[in-house]
Amino acid sequence: MSTANQTDDGETRRDFLHLTAGALGAVGVGVFAWPFIDSLNPAADTLAMSTIEVDLSPVEEGESITVVWRGKPVFIRHRTPKEIESAQKIAVADLRDSEADQDRVQKAQWLIMVGICTHLGCVPLGQRKTEPKGDFGGWFCPCHGSHYDISGRIRKGPAPKNLAVPQYNFIDDTTVRIG
Amino acid sequence: MGSGERVTFKNPVVSWIDERLPVFSLMHKEYRAFPTPKNFNYLWNFGAIASVMLILMIVTGIVLAMHYTPHADMAFGSVEHIMRDVNWGWMLRYLHMNGAAFFFVAVYIHMFRGMYYGSYKKPRELLWILGVVIFLLMMATAFMGYTLPWSQMGGWAATVITNLFSAVPIFGDDIVSLLWGGFSVDNPTLNRFFSLHYVLPFVIFAVVFLHVWALHVSGSNNPLGIEPKGPQDTLPFHPYYTMKDTFGLAVFLLLYVVVTFWFPNIFAHPDHFVEYNPLQTPPHIVPEWYFLPFYAILRAITFDIAIPFGNVLFLIAALGATLYAYFSAGRVRKFLWLCIVADIFALALLSFSPHFVLEAKLGGVIAMFGSVGLLVLLPWLDTHPVRSARFRPRYRFFLWLFVIATIVLGYVGAQLPEGIWVKLGQLCTAYYFGFFLVILPWLSRTEKALPLPKSISDAVLKGVVVLFAVISFSTPVLAEGGEHSHEAQHVESQEWSFRGPFGTYDREALRRGYTVYQNVCSACHSMNLVSYRNLSDLGYSPEQVKAIAAEYSVMDGPDDEGEMFERPALPRDPFTNPYPNRKAAIYANNGSYPPDMSLLAKARHGGADYIYGLLTGYGDAPHGKDLMQGQYWNAVMTGNVIAMAPPLSEGMVSYEDGSPETLDQYARDVSHFLTWAAEPHMEARKYTGVKVFIFLLVFAIVMYGVKKKTWADVH
Ligand code: FES
Q: pLDDT at position A9, please?
């Protein structure tokens, strides 16, 4: 009787020890993996580059500029009153990615968006006067033929979404901080 | 392998796979059931430990390579980028750097174990030779890794080691420029070293596989050196040795963690923190500690070895060998002997004089490579039938002497080659070769061994950890020992809040120190590796950092018209340079370059103590010591002469926090600040170290319990 009990005790203690050791080992390896994975995230100097300030004063009405933000092109267009009007009068419900123009801008004359086609990541044409602007007078992606309007919304072609609007805020009337 | 009998598994998936590819059967046979002698002591842990270190080196190395740039202009900066900006980069780098040292510790103990217990003897000769191949590959890999940070130490070590090959007669110079890919150690050299440093560990991995395969054919040796006589002498590898190895590993890792997190630069010379300059050799080049014995052997050959009547001797040797070839039986033998004849003739042709002279340079190189190469021949130099030194008292004595000679050689290797050290190095080198070439063959013939036990079960289990202690205590001595003796001046140790295992930086002192740098040092000294954004670490708010940065202007561009333009600095910019380039800095400072201060605290012996000592060490030159124009006397500077005018004086910088505006306080604060600049993640390092240490300690204790339980029924 007592001998049986003793072995039982020994067994449980051994099991407990093994479980503890196994759990410790598993947790240790798991935690140890984290620094390796985290090191692949953007480093401090890359993060320091992740906000930029852009001076808009030299951009005339009807002109566009492209600035680099986090290694990507950002389209900034100084829209004319006519363009603003045409962007606003579209019936939002008919769009593939319904979004009103007012929701895509902070100041109606400044359209700021990431210049990357939401289909497969090409840079659409239309920033320069000589480039094709597509059927809707905005931008045209030559890779697989996506047409964007003057609000950067997808109107025709394979892309599923409107051109993305980055986080930004105006520091003063002519300076914007992106990111 | 793999096609042996299979094991049956309950799990249907496992069994399905195993029928088609018997990996599970293989694992079961080699790592579970594998019959292992039951009398291993703790020295048998180091094979497993070394494999874990290899894997750790590969894993950290792969990730580090993702952040490193193998270009002569960017390598140094990219390593500092890892240390400063990459998430956990400092930890991965320190793990890798010190991991190499601990990998060698494990391998040296593993090799010693092989020698002490005669593990290289029949039938394990090939197993041993594969081990020596691994060791050679490790040496090559470690050496190339040493070069990659492109520091003064690394670049010059590469120069010195590659130049060894210039000792090769006739082809020497061609071989060296082949290795360099140019006329000096430069970008092409760095690129190929990086490529090889990346690939060789995988080659090592493959050879380790062969090494383990060979081990599993012959079975393990054991402390008694006699073969197991049957099942009563062995235990299945799992759980007995898996548990014991894991416990041993945890203890080993504890030591590794202590060094990595609290003394990460103990093996690193200050010249590691200065970028490589091909025009200026640092006064004292040393390899990593694990190469020091071989380096000492290289330097021990300081004399030409003259062989009188060399050509006559060659002729006789060649004639003898030809005759032997003619009369010996078998084609292979004949062929081998004719090869030897050809070699002798080639050598004779190389030495045109009647007295063949082996130059000291070539002699040293041959001795160094020979000292490693001899290890391959060990199974045939020691042919004594008894394996374990336990039963060979004389062999044991000479082997310990050999260990001592090697450690002394290591110490000698770290000293300047002068005076007593040369003689001592030569003495130990003589013993090193004598041990292999004379003592071992002699003992093989004459030594009478003690009676061997009939079987393993008869003997008592006993653990030895002596050597581990010896090596772990002697390595820091090797690493440090050589260096202190070269310090020109004694630097007085100061009180610093960042000292000690839990020490932290004093933010107020850091901010004051920055003010001093900003107002005084920055007029001449750059700090390229520190950016304004880093100042938030000193307790400045983002707005303050922005304001500080905006006081400086930096060159940017080109703008849309292709012009460069000046703009106010942003937090992301590195500290602005006082001079447009290095040449301008040298020109403006009477020919001496004011060193970049980012790593100064690491690039000088004594760190903060040194900087403080230098700043407060100005004085009048003692009588009889003439100083030239533009020179100043300093108690701490090597040679007591410095080109920098005393930079600090009472009251020259005003402090906002009411601290005394004295020279002493300025010097103290700026030293504090520079220590932070050189090692900004020190606090995170110690803090992480505490967590890792506690975890490993608990793990080791639990594993000890598991191991005891597992072994309870064996003892
Ligand atoms: S990527 Fe633009 S249409 Fe496909």
A: 56
